[in-house]
Each structure stands twice: as structure tokens, then as C-alpha cells.
Amino acid sequence: MKHQVKVWDAPTRLFHWTLAASFAFMWWSAEQGGDWMAWHLRGGVLIAVLLVFRLLWGVLGSQTARFADFLKGPASILRYVRGELTEREQPGHNPLGGWMVLAMLAALAAQVTTGLFSADVNAYIYDGPLAAAISSETAEQMNSYHRLNFNLVLALVGLHLAAIVFYRVVKRQNLVKPMLTGYKSIEGEAPSLYFAPVVIALVTLVVAAGAVYFVLTRF
Question: Mind listing the pLDDT tens digit of every residue in the chain (219 residues)?
Fold first, then answer.
């Protein structure tokens, strides 16, 4: 018998969809150029806050949001590939999906970092907030890295979307609905999961925003 089990807390879901919307806007605003680059820079700061929040939430947050819960070794990955790892054992991210999450966060962190230090080589108006902290040559190089790394981020996004389609069509599993509602249909006895209080998420968000503000105003 299947049970509807809460696997994703509200902070994790809000982070996911806010990040997705922010990434789409960043892509669009970069393509528009011109005065939209001012909003592109603001969007970059927002994503920086989101990433710091997610790193902290991966340690302090709910069970399925913690890195220790979904970053598994070769043995667990092999069990998953063989179909031996049940959803009750791994109700959140599966072992492969967990490493995809880490890869995505790392690529986005690189994208934000290079953007913060990038020089505006087109209009010379909208430099990254930290571009003045390095030489102009290095800032221009950062711009090149920023553009190059975007292709990696885009490839990871494409792989993520392909995995969602694969699970929906081949495995008959809807991965989008649980990230919207928080609930997932799991066979057998419902697992007992820990969910962090909302106040911890709010404090974590404030700390993340404060850390980004400190970096942007001190360097």
C-alpha cells in the first residue's frame, strides 16, 4: 500500500522554485543587455543569497535537505542502479540525484562568483560589484569565465530536465508534484523524517543575506 508522505519542507521548495525563476530571469536579462544588466546584477546578488542559504540549510535544515542525507557513496549508488534501494530508505533525493544537486550548486556558485568579479566588456557601465577589487585584466578574464561556465550550467539544467522527463515517462514517477506540494507517494510503511522549525529557516536566510552583504560592502 502506498502512503502520501511529506518529504520536502517549505524552505527547500521555495528555494528550488525561486532559484529556477531567478536563473531564467538571469538568462533573459543577459540576452537583453543594456539597462537590463542592472537587474542582472541584482539577480546575481539574489542567487548568491540563495546559494549561501542552501549551503547552510544543507547542514541545519530538515532531514531530506541535508547533504549528509543524500550524498551517498558508491555502494548506495550501485544499490540504486540495481533497483535495490527503496524509496522508504531514500525518500528525498536518490544517490544520483543527490550528486546532481551538488554539481548544480557548485556550477551556480562558480557562475555567481565570476559574475561578481566580471568587468562589463560591452558597455563598461555594469561591472560586477567586486570587479574593482581586482585588476581590469583579471576582471575581463572573469567575464570570459562567466560566459563559458554558463554553458556548463545550461548543460546541467538540461540534464536535470531530461531526468524529470525520464522518470515521468519511463518510471511513471512525477518528480515535479512533490517539489510543489511537499508530498510524495511511497510504497509501504511511511518513513519517520525530521523537519526543522521554520524559525531556523528564517534565521538561516537572514544570516545568508548578511554574509553576502558583508562581502559585497567590505571588498
Answer: 677 899 999 999 999 999 999 999 999 999 999 999 999 999 999 999 999 999 999 999 999 999 999 999 999 999 999 988 888 888 999 999 999 999 999 999 999 999 999 999 887 789 999 999 999 999 999 999 999 999 999 999 999 999 999 999 998 889 999 999 999 988 777 788 999 999 999 999 999 999 999 999 987
What does the alpha-carbon distance between residue 121 and residue 140 come to, in Å, rounded to a whole number? 7
Closest CA to 44 of 161, 131, 157, 158: 131
Closest CA to 99 of 59, 68, 71: 71
In the chain, the domains with their CATH numbers are 2-218 (1.20.950.20)
Half-sphere exposure of 191 (CA within 13 A, CB side): 20
Tell me the whole-structure pTM to 2 decimals.
0.94
Grid cell for residue 205: 536566510
Grid coordinates belonging to 84:
535495490
